[in-house]
Amino acid sequence: MPLLKVEELSKSYRQLDGGLTLATREISIQVDKGEFVSLVGPSGCGKTTLLMCIAGLIPPSAGRVLIKGVEVNGPAPDLVLIFQEFNRSLFAWRSVLGNVLFGLEAKRKRSRDAEEKARHLIRLVGLEGFERHHPWELSGGMQQRVAIARALAYEPEILLMDEPFGSVDALTRLELEDTLLRLWQELGSTILFVTHDIEEAIYLSDKIYILSRRPSRVMHRIEVDLSRPRHQLATRADARFMKFRNEIYKQISNETGRDANVK
Amino acid sequence: MHFAWKEKLNLPGLATLAALLLLWEASTRLSPTLQFYFPPLSQILLSLFDLFLAREVVGHCLTTLGRFLGGYLLSAALAVSCGIALGYFRRTYNLCEVLIEFLRPMPSVAIIPVAILFLGIGDRMVVAVTVYACTWPILINTIDGVRNIDGTLIDTGRTFGLSRWTILRKIALPGASPYILTGLRISLPIGLILVTTSEMVVGGGGLGFFILDEERSLRTSNMYAGIILVALLGYLLNRLFLVFESKAMVWHRGMRAEGPV
Question: What is the rounded distance in angstroms from the CA atom of residue B163 to the CA atom of residue B161?
């Protein structure tokens, strides 16, 4: 049984003038335990809407989401969504340690060794020494690390991430990608990752779903069989990496009507 | 503003105060007819000293302080919990909105006769009136505070599987705390006004009663001593509050100094 199964999920919004907008159309995806899966698609294609539905934060208009075979109805337990606006999702009144402890409190696991666990996670995301700082004292990349540590403290079965590295600079982004891969492997997590960056998706994932523009549907599924552990330079220089990139790029740009033959 | 008390002493301001007090002392000494209305400051301070020796006024101070704290803390508990619910649940707010908008601008002293009617005269009545008056600023600010919380924070609570109750407690309450503290600061002097006024109306001890009673007994010097005591009480309570606020809101000041994260 797959860990996460999305069956023909559609979501439409009522507009101010009363008309309906379709954000996603009959999307079906599947994530198995321990997988790193990405959703790639053009900006504004309804990826965030899809994640919100999967997380159970908004109800789908049609179709369903199953976690370990159980239909999601309301905020899904055993699942944490890291928001695109990670900086706005951190608790400004709590320290870094307090924010990470929140993940344990939410799981009702605030025991005597909770603080030790939280400190361990803070070390894992590379924020040792910043335990007593508040989120607003940190850079964007560091804030994202806090958000990741807080989510991992909850020990979710699946971690959903909505363009988490979209608003940090390029170098920080590469660092964060490697931190995430290391954590994913060390902790044996399952991650569903949304991005519009094709190379990021290939670099991170086992499997990529390519989404069309709005109303989005799954156009294609790609198995990324590049060897692990991956390396920012070596993996990206691999000929197969280039092949995946061209393939995905063609899919997306054909769809959006741009000239795919440029590459 | 919050730091005013931490900064250097405001010497020109203190000098102005000293000059006025000197003027008071000198003018009342020169004109005996004025002395009934304005006893010399030195005489008032002597009365204050005598009153403390006689212990009676200490009881009045404690009565007023006790009633104030009782009413203020009760209203804080009531208004913060109601405000959080009203700020979070839109429909509940709609039910109460008209009532709140009608009662809030009403001068709270108008409720004193009603309180007497229901509770008679005594501590319970004074406390009830204080609770009523202090509630509004705290309630309104708490509602505003909860409304201004970023929706992403609430969604964060939801994705971590928190119940609504826990979201209110762990996210809405701390998130709204800067607004709540503003409400509490506004209510502080209001509470003291209502305690003193009620005491003047119903008697039964307390500084308000004492001030009016001394005036009626033509002991103006004691009356002024009483006024100085309420003023001091208000000043000290405000000081205490500011210390508490600056400790509790370190994160908020820091965040604002950094600009939006």
Answer: 7
Q: What would the mean pLDDT of B11-20 be, rounded to a whole number?
A: 93
Q: What is the pTM of this model?
A: 0.85
Print the domain residue range for A4.
1-73+196-263
Buried b (16+ CB within 10 A) or exposed e, B150-174: eeebbbbbbbbbbeeebbbebbbbb
pLDDT of residue B32: 80
Query: Distance between CA atoms of A25 and A46, rounded to whole angstroms?
Result: 10
Write out the H or E segment, with its range, that includes residue A45.
Answer: none
Nearest chain A residue to B156 by CA: give it: A89
Domain count for chain A, please give it.
1
Residues in chain B whose Cβ is within 8 Å of chain A: 150, 152-153, 155-156, 158-162, 170-171, 174-175, 177, 251-252, 254-255, 258, 261
Q: Is residue B155 predicted with pLDDT exceeding 90?
A: yes
| Residue A205 counted as domain residue | yes
Tell which A residues from 41 to 100 touch B, by Cβ distance under 8 Å.
Answer: 55, 57, 75-77, 79-81, 83, 85, 87-94
Q: Are the beta carbons of A84 and A166 closer than 8 angstroms?
A: yes
Q: Among the CATH numbers 3.30.470.20, 3.30.70.260, 1.10.3720.10, 2.60.40.10, which is that of B42-258?
A: 1.10.3720.10
Q: CA–CA distance from B177 to each of A198, B33, B138, B173 (Å)?
A: 42, 53, 11, 6
Interface residue of A91, A99, A148, A168 to substitute, partner B, most B CBs within 10 Å? A91
